Amino acid sequence: MSIEDVLPEAGQDGPLYAALTQLDDAAELIGLAPAIHQKLRKPKRVIAVSIPTLMDDGSHQVFTGYRAQHSMERGPCKGGLRYHPDVNLEEVIAGAMWMTWKCAVVNIPYGGAKGGVICNPKEMSQGELERMTRRFTSELVEVIGPEKDIPAPELYTDAQTMAWIMDTYSMQKGYSVPAVVTGKPTVLGGSLGREAATGRGCVFAIREAMCRLGLPLTGATFAVQGFGNVGRWVARLLEPLGLKLVAATDSQGGCLNPDGISVEALVEHKVQSGTVVGLPGTDRITNKELLALECDVLVPAALENVIHQGNAGDVRAKMIAEGANGPTTPAAQEILNDKGIFVIPDILANAGGVTVSYFEWVQGLQAYFWTEEEVNERLEAIMVRAFEEVYAESQARNVDMRAAAMAVAVGRVAEAQRMRGIYP
Ligand code: GLU
Predict the structure, then answer these.
(1) 202 vs 176: CA distance, rounded Å
(2) CATH number assigned to the domain comprising residue 228
(3) Residue 119 domain flag
(4) Which ligand 1 atom minimizes the distance to the CA of 183?
């Protein structure tokens, strides 16, 4: 039995299919050595665990959790942990692969990982979530760690989740190990600016792209799919640059006002009612309608594969900034290219989160903490440099920004692998 036998099939139009297609395209573009290409098509390690959890009614439920570690060529594995009913191994492996490229494209010293638990966090109490998280951490205790693999927040996990992981890991080791996770509360060694970082990084990328394309910021319109951490911060930080939010959606639907929506009013409404739907003074729209809206910048900041062959032709935005991981399928990317829509790919557009995770890890290891201004300045410097490098690559090779970002990222990983050699 080989690792092939336990790995999932890359279903057509699924996230793993997209991740592998992007890698194969990059391999061809940069002339990647076949041995390194073959190695990078597979995760280094995949862990599946059972997580028996005491529920509030006294019963036990056994959840399934995964952690995939794609590569360690450039440093320890790094990546988020998501809690969602649709979590599956295919998505987790694709996510780990994307983290490898994301860390490489912004040139921070990590490989990629991703994890998840199949559960519905919206229906679980804090106590149930805590017990599930602690047991999951115990099951992973030998494979995570500051030098091995460092989890972080993702879909439906947050600073509290990271605090439970850090505490459980530390109790098992017998001493405090804050650097085992990032995205922690600041009282436990979290970095200032981490919560806003993914959105802030995305806004830096959008600003750079609009400058390159000669699109004025003032009065430009944008629409956001997903109003969780990333979508909210993108909206909050684009507004002061002079851009106007015209629509936002979440899993329940969305709201539209072509004259502009106040971001703070929408955040407040979402906090109060649990959804962006029904903000006074707005009309209701669907997720499908949002993707087809005429606007300058469209920010998909929710799930994978939302822009696909079936709807890419409807997109009327001038630019897409991928706040989410893997929102555009390879077939959709081709359609968007034909329409001349500029796509800032996920591994660049949403790399601000892992960049500030890196700052958090560095600060934690040194036990020396930076001001929020320092964090934001260093984030800006990294995002601007990465954007410039990818843009220059896209011009030099005459390819879209995703192909360029992949060429830069895969090139860096391949160079590290070449210098290290393949053991033994
Ligand atoms: N989950 C985030 C991402 O996909 C952050 C990962 C991290 O900070 O390690 O980039």
Answers:
(1) 33
(2) 3.40.50.720
(3) yes
(4) 8
